[in-house]
Design a protein that fits this description.
This protein is mainly alpha-helical and about 200 residues long. Helix content is about 75%, strand content about 0%. It contains seven helices and no strands.
């Protein structure tokens, strides 16, 4: 899947849109199947999941780069779209992972068409139509809906006052000053400032 994504990005950069788009879609299909096969045959490991996720992000950013270089003109707007798109393909994964760590279900969130499968399908269709800018616009904007909705879900969880074990850690270094000492220090600072 990773190698296909890199080859697809190169083909997109060279404006070989049909083959590049087909490879993007094939990479997406293989990426979906390899994890399922690993789970089916009880070969899935946390390390394998981690490596797969990192390689997916590298592939996604390479595809964004390919679309950017394939654009008719690489002007300020195109560069801005590319930066947003590259950031968003990483943030979607990051946010989904962190919501899971918070215990927030992501089923509703996955209905927003900004998951990896949806993003790569849009790249596939835009490539078949030889319209790399459509894909860049989509990759730059659609994940923002996903990210915004993730904030809403996290806020709802926060407002329900769910206590989670192990989420907070002690600060390093730990401050061992009593609250009364801090209050006295602030009062002294304020009174000395007023005297000046």
């Amino acid at each position: 899947s990773f190698a296909l994504g890199l080859v697809a990005s190169l083909l997109l950069a060279l404006r070989v849109f049909i083959f590049g788009g087909l490879l993007v879609q094939l990479a997406s299909l293989i990426d979906g199947v390899d994890g399922e096969l690993a789970r089916l045959y009880h070969k899935a490991t946390p390390w394998g999941g981690y490596v797969d996720s990192v390689l997916d992000r590298i592939s996604d950013v390479a595809i964004v780069a390919g679309l950017t270089l394939a654009s008719p003109t690489v002007d300020t707007l195109t560069v801005l779209l590319a930066v947003l798109a590259a950031s968003n393909v990483v943030f979607v994964s990051y946010v989904t992972h962190n919501l899971g760590r918070l215990g927030v279900g992501t089923e509703k969130l996955r209905k927003v068409p900004a998951t990896r499968d949806a993003r790569l399908f849009v790249v596939f269709v835009a490539s078949l139509l030889s319209l790399p800018m459509i894909a860049l616009w989509y990759l730059a904007l659609a994940p923002m809906l996903y990210l915004s909705y993730s904030i809403v879900l996290a806020y709802k969880m926060r407002s329900e006052e769910v206590q989670l074990e192990g989420v907070r850690r002690k600060p390093i270094p730990e401050i061992l000053i009593e609250k009364k000492e801090i209050t006295k220090g602030i009062e002294s600072l304020v009174s000395n400032t007023i005297k000046l």
